[in-house]
From TrEMBL:
<keyword id="KW-0223">Dioxygenase</keyword>
<protein>
    <submittedName>
        <fullName>Phytanoyl-CoA dioxygenase family protein</fullName>
    </submittedName>
</protein>
<dbReference type="GO" id="GO:0051213">
    <property type="term" value="F:dioxygenase activity"/>
</dbReference>
<dbReference type="InterPro" id="IPR008775">
    <property type="entry name" value="Phytyl_CoA_dOase-like"/>
</dbReference>
<keyword id="KW-0560">Oxidoreductase</keyword>
<dbReference type="Pfam" id="PF05721">
    <property type="entry name" value="PhyH"/>
</dbReference>
Length: 275
């Protein structure tokens, strides 16, 4: 089976402007069924093999009920590396952030089990020791995500809101951020994902997901990108210090995050679309 994950996905100027305004975008038909089946099988295998969760759902914390989480699958499998290093996704990320190139921060699979709970409202960049807002997450469902499976939901335009940026994902963040978003009138986009549909959201965009009320796992692969020229900042909290040690080992404060774990995955001046 011939699969080309470097094939470009052209964006319109309107889509880029929508992302700049809203802090997220959902794009149809980024992947086809064959691509998702091929890479999804390996991502699922790795998630099952590598996750360390052993407690039943009812005994877990809110965070642990939200999903099974396995990170940096690209280091575990050549097939997973092909997916994470694909220039189609990376090219979209660079275009949406309006930067010349992107580096990998890390990848992670997120499997919300049948009966899995909510993903509380939060902003990802609380966890990241990075010096600018030029970060973006590609959220790639490996199957369609109907409403009862808990699709990712976004507070539109919330990437500019300071309140809640100091909250880690928890019951408290769900209460405080959701209340603030509603009080300020931010529109919530909470809709199903079609097969092949992918969302991208900024590191400071507040988002959440409902529980998985279906009988199937909600299987998702994510890739987190940052501006190619991103610099490390001094950590603001213990989570950022842990991320520095785990995902950017050897990077120096105020220097570009150029480590073996953070390769450049796309540069617009070097990209030559496949024939």
């Amino acid at each position: 089976m011939a699969i080309d994950l470097d094939r470009p996905y052209p964006l319109t100027s309107r889509q880029i402007a929508d992302y700049r305004r809203d802090g997220f975008i959902k794009l149809k038909q980024v992947f086809n069924a064959d691509e998702l089946a091929h890479y999804g099988a390996e991502i699922t295998r790795l998630t099952i093999a590598l996750n360390t969760q052993t407690l039943p759902l009812e005994q877990r914390s809110t965070y642990d009920r939200a999903f099974l989480q396995v990170m940096n699958l690209w280091e575990e499998s050549g097939t997973a590396r092909e997916f994470v290093f694909g220039r189609r996704l990376a090219g979209i990320a660079a275009a949406l952030m309006e930067v010349d190139g992107v580096r990998l921060y890390h990848d992670q699979s997120l499997y919300k089990e049948p009966g899995g709970g909510i993903t509380p409202a939060h902003a990802d960049q609380y966890y990241w020791p990075v010096a600018s807002d030029r970060t973006i997450t590609a959220w790639v469902p490996l199957q369609a995500v109907p409403q009862d499976m808990g699709p990712l939901a976004f507070f539109s335009g919330s990437q500019h809101v300071e309140f809640g940026r100091d909250l880690e994902i928890s019951d408290a963040s769900e209460r405080a951020i959701t209340a603030n978003m509603h009080a300020r009138g931010f529109r919530v986009l909470d809709e199903p994902f079609d097969l092949g549909e992918v969302s991208f959201h900024s590191g400071w965009t507040f988002h959440r997901a409902g529980p998985n009320r279906s009988t199937r796992p909600r299987a998702v692969m994510t890739v987190i990108y940052m501006d190619r020229d991103m610099r490390l900042k001094a950590p603001d909290n213990h989570m950022q210090r842990a991320d520095w040690e785990r995902w950017c080992p050897g990077a120096a404060i105020d220097a570009v995050i150029d480590t073996p774990k953070n390769p450049v995955l796309f540069e617009s001046r070097l990209f030559e679309p496949s024939a």
